[in-house]
Amino acid sequence: MFIVNVEGAVYKDGQWLMITRSLKEEHAGGTLSLPGGKVDREGHTLDILERTVKRELYEEVGVEVKENVTYVYSSSFVTDDDRPVINMVFLCEYDKGTPYSKSPDEVESVQWMTLSEIMNHPKAPPWTKQSVQRAEEAQPKLT
């Protein structure tokens, strides 16, 4: 059975909301990441992925996003302890809240970063770069 994980790509004023994962995290501790987390079992429900990404953003970094979130893409990987994971990234529009590490066991630090800063960051793994690049491409273009 897969673990289902969601990540929120939150964009504001030319920058992306990024976290540095705590070294206590089981997977990819100490790396740059989009905020997010695992989907909880809820039984029969609607919009579970969208609600999970909103919940995780608030629980991890204290940020609220607007109602509509947009699916960007999905990927899969296997953790170091051989658990299969499906990961989904959603583009989210910032609404309110000053981001901070609400959960130090999960989030070491929180920062707003440009695409260039993320792509050149020494602790940004390839999958994080891919997620932000795809979210950047999924943004509505202003004309």
Low-confidence stretches: none
Measured by DSSP, the beta-strand proportion falls in: 35-45%
Which structural class matches the secondary elements?
A: alpha+beta
**Mean pLDDT, nearest integer?**
91
Span between N and C termini? 44 Å
What is the rounded Rg?
14 Å
CATH topology: Nucleoside Triphosphate Pyrophosphohydrolase
CATH architecture assignment: Alpha-Beta Complex
Number of strands: 7
Largest sheet: 7 strands, mixed
Q: Tell me the domain tally.
A: 1
Q: Element order, helices and strands? A: EEEEHEEEHH
Overall spatial form: globular
CATH class: Alpha Beta
Count of DSSP H/I helices: 3
Question: Please, what is the CATH homologous superfamily?
Answer: Nucleoside Triphosphate Pyrophosphohydrolase
- Percent helix, as a range, is 10-25%
Brief write-up:
By secondary structure, the protein is of the alpha+beta class. It has helices at residues 48-61, 115-119, 126-138; strands at residues 3-12, 15-21, 32-33, 36-38, 64-78, 84-96, 107-113.
Note the topology.
Blueprint: E1 3-12, E2 15-21, E3 32-33, E4 36-38, H1 48-61, E5 64-78, E6 84-96, E7 107-113, H2 115-119, H3 126-138
Parallel strand pairs: 1-6
Antiparallel strand pairs: 1-2, 1-4, 2-3, 2-7, 5-6
What does this structure look like?
The chain has 143 residues and is α+β, with helices and mostly antiparallel strands. Helix content is 22%, strand content 40%. The protein has a single domain (3-138), classed as Nucleoside Triphosphate Pyrophosphohydrolase (Alpha-Beta Complex), CATH 3.90.79.10. Strands 1, 2, 3, 4, 5, 6 and 7 form a 7-stranded mixed sheet that branches.
